[in-house]
Amino acid sequence: MPVQKLKEFLDSHNIKYVTISHSRAFTAQETAASAHVPVKELVKTVIVKIDGKMAMAVLPASSKVDFDILKKATGSATIEIANEKEFKDLFPDCEIGAMPPFGNLYGMEVFVAKSLTEDREIAFNAGSHRELVKLTYKDFERLVKPKIVKFSVEIK
Fold first, then answer.
1. What is the pLDDT of residues 41-54, one digit of tens each?
2. How many structural domains compose the chain?
């Protein structure tokens, strides 16, 4: 089960969390509706290549990555979205597109959108398109130690 690695990690740190099972969903809107979670609390993980190195950009599901802002914030020469073929092997325990935002479990740097720091709780894919994990943002930040950057813009 994809979520097992994440649950073991959270349990080992005595983190309070809730798992939410839902019908199979692929878009943020479908997932939020299926899991009965406000879309503003739903987080998505976008895999990016920063100067050729894979990293996670974690942002509200209702937003998109502004690559120019992220490029400036990271001081990188190039930044682009990674394609599935490039990163699928990095997450052998996850379904494609359902990676949890815990780059520390996969040896990846994590950049989190500054707007998420205002959320009390966040929910995110837990390795499958059928299960979310919900926990406090503060616990997420304490465990992952992401770089907080203002790089997301609301999808109109």
1. 899 999 999 999 99
2. 1
